[in-house]
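Handoff note, outgoing to incoming analyst
You'll be picking up this chain. Sequence as last confirmed:
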Amino acid sequence: MAIKRLDHISVVVDDLITATDFFTALGMTREGEASVEGPWVDRVNGLEGVQADIVMMRTPDGHGRLELTKFRNPKLIEIEPAIIPPNALGLRSVMFTVDNVNDAVARMGAYGAELIGEVVEYENLYRLCYVRGPGGIIVSLAEEL
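Most recent structure output, in case you need it:
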């Protein structure tokens, strides 16, 4: 059995509008939205009484998708520390190739993104950086040189 494709990555956020605006400013397009609840949602999440709002975002090339999820019920669980460092176990980051890293960092700053380290050049191939995005996730940006 083989994987057919990576369908999407899901990010739980506390402010769906701000997160949608953030990824729209980065260059993604809103593909659709839905509210979900009911027995099937409870069963797939292993939780009781799930009520969630979802916005699906798509990359300009049409291949990458990001699902932004806001749980209305049960309430969100805060993790400690609230801002996890890049070396924490688990999903590290979501990376996007952009036209211009400096421009992307400036645009994302207007939506609350903070540069984690510095913009660096890797072997004359890429300019790279990490910014902290909605829900504290790390968004990696790469500019091909």
